[in-house]
Amino acid sequence: MADSGAKRNRRSILDLLLGAGLLGWAGSIIFPVIRYLKPLGAQAQNGPVKLGAEDLAKLEKEHAVIVRAGAARIIVLEDANQRLHALSAKCTHEGCTVQYVPGDSVIWCACHNGRFDLDGRVLAGPPPRPLEKYVCQREGGAVIVQLGRGPETA
Amino acid sequence: MSAPTTETQAERKGFYGWLDRRYGITPLIEFLKHKEVPVGAHSVLWYYLGGLTLFFFTIQLATGVLLLAYYQAGENTSYESIRFLTTKVPFGWLVRSMHCWSAHLMILSLVTHMFSTMVLKAYRPPRELTWVTGFLLFALALGFGFSGYLLPWNELAFFATAVGTDSMKAVPVIGDWVMQVLRGGPDVSINTLYRFFALHVVVLPLFTVGIVAGHLIFIQRQGMAPPMAHDKPERGMKFFPDFALRDLLLWLICLIALASLAVFLPYGPGIPGVEWELGKKANPLAPAYPGIKPEWYFLWVYQLLKEFPPHLLGMEGPQAAIALVSVLFGIWALVPWLDRKARADRPSPGFTDLAMAALIFLAYLTLKAWDVGGGGVAQPDPHTVARVCAYWALLIAAATVAIRLLMHGAPYFDLTAAAVLQIALHGFVGLHYLTAGAISVALLAASLVWRLFRSRNAARAAPGGQP
Fold this sequence. Notes:
The complex is a heterodimer. Chain A is of the alpha+beta class. Chain A has helices at 2-37, 53-62, and strands at residues 49-50, 64-69, 72-78, 84-88, 99-101, 106-109, 114-116, 122-124, 133-139, 142-146. In chain A, the strands form two sheets. Chain A has a six-stranded antiparallel β-sheet with strand order 1-10-9-4-3-2. Chain A has a four-stranded antiparallel β-sheet with strand order 5-6-7-8, with no helix packed on it. In chain A, strand 5 and strand 6 form a beta hairpin. Chain A starts with a helix and ends in an 8-residue tail after the last strand. In chain B, strands 1-2 form a two-stranded antiparallel ribbon.
């Protein structure tokens, strides 16, 4: 009786060791795979972005242009009073790229009909948050967008 | 199989005997010879839909392999290789057109199969896991549609993927991780396409083939679900050759229909959500274009995302919408355990009603997503669209009710009534879609409570009933 009890004890310790070993073995496979699949962090860009000649021509012609700043997309637009605005071009609803509608003076997302004013505030539709705003100015003939969150965030 | 059945394995001659002595295939042949399909009053038509879905899936495998002969995943090659395939390669347009048409028809056949299983209660014990594997295959089919969409790397694909992957953020705790893993970065880029390509041509097909095998093994072990006990089959039909030949004939007809559609409408019927013109190459710096819509089977989710306000119950709108979709899918997957009447082999009109209410709910959202009644302008008046779509949805609801009354005299319409009430309150009275939904759900809950009380009272009043 005592012998079989000791056997059971030994068996359960072995089972425990085996289970822990299997768990460790699975973890040592799953962890690298999870780590492998998670993409490397995107290069964050904090410095100013200067619009190229092609972007400037588009801004002149269509009153708006979308430029890339690191991983972000920024819409730079010129309103009816020739004032420049720079905002995140990524809709806060489901991440589509927004566009400027000069006739209505709004920023519109065609995907789910979200509307923002030129300061990025939500006017209508489902977007839950305003678009992030950036400082944008002309320096001579150039247009420069300052990146990084600042007091300009709407 | 000219050998008489009394002949022993050792006596069999030829290739059959050689195989049989090694692998003992006679029991398998005997099993297939005696396999029967139950023939019910009105159920035999629905038995072909699973096989039809499998047929379209094999077309997908065949045309998919052919597409791989030319497709090259890459920022400067994905779009270009599909354009080359459709414009220069002999019959390249046909292969792509067949792949696209067959994808849509496969989803259509799968969804019809699922709804018919629901209405006929074929999920009742012992077939719960057949339903669950079928549900997983449905989810995989949606995954196929979603991942395949991006591969041509055109504008439509880009934004559909941006929206679809963004909605993953709604998943608690791991949402952001899942989104980044799917995208291969913070935003949709060519890295996303590489990952979707791997999913579409390797991961999803492997899972699908495995689960289809499970689904088929379950059906072979248990046979096809007979009609409910109150609707006993009069006879059975031999699977070989009677049913199999009918299956084959249907596949042949569908192949001809598929080829005709692919030839005469190579870029789809031109309905938003059912078209595959290559269009412009994806440009992450171009805004989403007006009228952009996902595939037809995602339109209801797309519309739901539009209906939800920016914030709801402490959640962001999209998060709340995705939570609702997840709950609905969860209920759908667990139907075999929720339907207690069908478990006891008793008539279960409540769950037929659930299927019909789901159909009406999906139809209304899909019609709204199509802007039916909007006059074809880019931004139609939402009230007009809501009203015109309500007329159509109510027509569909009336048709389902009429058919059910004619066929069964179905005594249960609470869920259909709730779906119809929501549509009427939103479309005709002008209430917000969610307010109308909340009122309908509240009334539905009240009616369920009332029914529960009434049945308890009836049980008490009945002679010998439990106190």
